[in-house]
Amino acid sequence: MAKAANIKKGIQEEELLQILKEKGPLTRTELMEITGVPRTTLYDKLVKLILKGKVRKVPVKGNGRGRPKVYYEAIS
Fold this sequence. Notes:
Elements: H1 2-5, H2 13-23, H3 28-35, H4 39-51, E1 55-60, E2 69-74
Antiparallel strand pairs: 1-2
């Protein structure tokens, strides 16, 4: 239960964009580990940034079967 107390409730779009500029491209899981923000919250913010033309998805096909990993990167 103590772990849940450390989860941030939100992140500003500009903060997220800055992290992607400095450390990207990153997956949602990596962003979650860096920020402590839940994946669904991150997804909502990332979609808004994509719609604004500030971030793009970069799918990377793995060696195996299944879905490709999706990275998010800031657009310069």
